[in-house]
Write a structure and sequence with these properties.
single chain, mainly alpha, Growth Hormone, Chain: A, 2 domains
Length: 414
C-alpha cells in the first residue's frame, strides 16, 4: 500500500511541476505591464527560472545519491515555498530574479528525484505505464494553470469567489501575484504530504566519477544530443512564453481570458500529441516520427506567425501538438546512441533544459533589433531545423521495438 501512496505522490508532483512551470507564459504580458519593461528585459524572468536547471541538474543527482529522494524532495518544496513567498511579499524586479531562480532550482531537484523513485515504487515492469500517466498529468497541469490564473484575475477584479481572499494580499496592479501565494500554499501542502510518507532509499550504486562527465562532454555524439535537448526546450518555452504577447500585438487578442485559453490549448494539444506519438512509436521508426513531427511544428509555426487571426489561433496550439514527442524521442535516441555511462549522460541531457532560459531573451532581443516580433520569433526556426536534422544523422545502436504484422512476434532491431 505504501508503494501505491508513493506512486500517487510522484504523479501529483509531476502535475505540480507543470502547474508552476507553465504559469510563466500566461502571466508574461502582466509582468511586462506591471514592471513597465520591454520584451527583451522581460525575457530575463524565464531566463532566471530555466538557468537553474543548468546549475542544479548534476548536483541534484549527487544529492539524490547521497541523501535519497525524500530529503531531495523536501528541500525542493522548501525552496519553492521560499521563492514563491519572496516574490509575493516583495514584488520587485530583483526579487523576481532571485525568486524564479529558487523555484527553478526546486523544479530541477524534483525532476531528478522523482523519475527513479517512480520506477522503483511502481515496479520496473509498470514503469512505461506510469510514465505515460505522468506525462498526461504534466500536460494537465500545464493546461490547468492558465485557466486558474484567468479565474483568479477575474474574481479579484470582481471581488468575488476566492478572489476576495487575495484582494488584501496583492497590490492593485499586480493581481497576478495571487498565483505565487497559491504556489507557496501548494508547496507547503506537498511538504506535509512527503513528511508523512515513509520513502525508503534505493539500493546504493557506485557514483560515477566526475571525470566520466568530462569524458562524455568531449564526445561529439553527447554534444550534439545535448544541443538537441536544449533546442527542444528553447522552442517549447519560446512559443509558450511569446504567443500571448504576439497574439495581443498582431491580432488584438485579450491576454488574460482569451490568451490564457490559447496557452491552455497549447498544453492540452501537447498532451494529446504525446498519446499519438506513443502509439506511432510501436509502428514507425523513432527517427521518422521525429522527422514528421518536427516538419509539422515548422509548418504550424509559419502559419501562426504569418497568417490571419483565425489561422493563428489554431496554429499556435497545433505547434504544441507537434512538439509533444520530441523530448521523449530525442532522449531515447540519445541514450540508445552510447554503450555505457547512461546515468551520467542523462544528467548532462537534463542540463540541456537550460535552453529554456535563452528563449525569451533571444526572442526579445531579435524583436527589438528588427522592430518586429514576427521576425524576432523567426529565431525559433533555427532549433526546429536542428531537431529535424537529428532524424537524419542519429545512429542509435538500438532502435525502438516495432510491431510487425507479418510476424508472430514483435522483433527488436539492433
Amino acid at each position: 500500500m505504501n508503494h501505491r501512496i508513493i506512486v500517487a505522490i510522484v504523479l501529483l508532483t509531476f502535475f505540480v511541476i507543470s502547474f508552476i512551470t507553465n504559469t510563466l507564459g500566461p502571466i508574461f504580458p502582466a509582468l511586462i505591464e506591471s514592471f513597465d519593461i520591454g520584451l527583451l528585459v522581460a525575457g530575463f524572468f524565464p531566463f532566471a527560472f530555466f538557468v537553474a536547471y543548468g546549475v542544479m541538474s548534476i548536483p541534484a543527482g549527487i544529492l539524490v545519491h547521497q541523501q535519497g529522494e525524500k530529503v531531495t524532495m523536501l528541500l525542493a518544496f522548501s525552496l519553492a515555498a521560499v521563492g514563491a513567498l519572496l516574490f509575493a511579499v516583495v514584488p520587485s524586479f530583483m526579487t523576481a530574479m532571485v525568486s524564479l531562480f529558487l523555484i527553478g532550482c526546486s523544479m530541477s531537484l524534483l525532476q531528478v528525484a522523482i523519475n527513479p523513485l517512480l520506477r522503483r515504487s511502481g515496479g520496473g515492469q509498470h514503469f512505461a505505464v506510469y510514465s505515460v500517466a505522468a506525462q498526461l498529468l504534466f500536460g494537465l497541469g500545464g493546461a490547468l494553470s492558465p485557466w486558474v490564473y484567468s479565474t483568479f484575475e477575474q474574481q479579484i477584479a470582481n471581488q468575488s469567489g476566492i478572489g476576495r481572499a487575495f484582494i488584501q494580499m496583492v497590490p492593485d496592479n499586480m493581481s497576478w501575484l495571487s498565483m505565487y501565494w497559491l504556489f507557496a500554499m501548494i508547496s507547503v501542502v506537498m511538504l506535509a504530504l512527503i513528511m508523512l510518507v515513509r520513502i525508503e532509499r534505493g539500493q546504493q550504486q557506485s557514483t560515477e566519477a566526475f571525470s566520466t562527465h568530462l569524458v562524455l562532454m568531449k564526445s561529439p555524439v553527447v554534444i550534439k544530443f545535448f544541443l538537441a535537448i536544449a533546442a527542444y526546450v528553447f522552442v517549447e518555452q519560446g512559443v509558450a512564453n511569446s504567443m500571448i504577447v504576439f497574439l495581443e500585438k498582431y491580432h488584438g487578442v485579450e491576454p488574460v481570458q482569451q490568451g490564457s485559453a490559447i496557452v491552455s490549448q497549447f498544453w492540452l494539444n501537447l498532451t494529446l500529441g504525446c498519446i499519438l506519438g506513443l502509439i506511432l512509436l510501436k509502428f514507425v521508426d523513432a527517427k521518422l516520427v521525429l522527422l514528421g513531427f518536427s516538419s509539422g511544428a515548422i509548418i504550424c509555426l509559419l502559419l501562426a506567425l504569418f497568417s490571419s487571426s483565425q489561422v493563428a489561433l489554431v496554429a499556435f496550439p497545433a505547434v504544441g501538438f507537434f512538439l509533444s514527442v520530441m523530448w521523449s524521442v530525442l532522449f531515447s535516441l540519445a541514450l540508445n546512441s552510447v554503450r555505457e555511462h547512461h546515468g551520467s549522460f542523462s544528467g548532462i541531457l537534463c542540463t540541456g533544459i537550460v535552453g529554456g532560459a535563452l528563449a525569451s531573451p533571444a526572442v526579445g532581443l531579435f524583436s527589438e533589433l528588427f522592430s518586429s516580433m514576427q521576425l524576432g520569433m523567426f529565431i525559433l526556426f533555427i532549433p526546429l531545423v536542428y531537431i529535424f536534422s537529428v532524424g537524419l544523422w542519429a545512429k542509435p545502436l538500438i532502435k525502438n521495438d516495432l510491431i510487425r504484422f507479418n510476424r508472430k512476434q514483435s522483433t527488436q532491431n539492433v
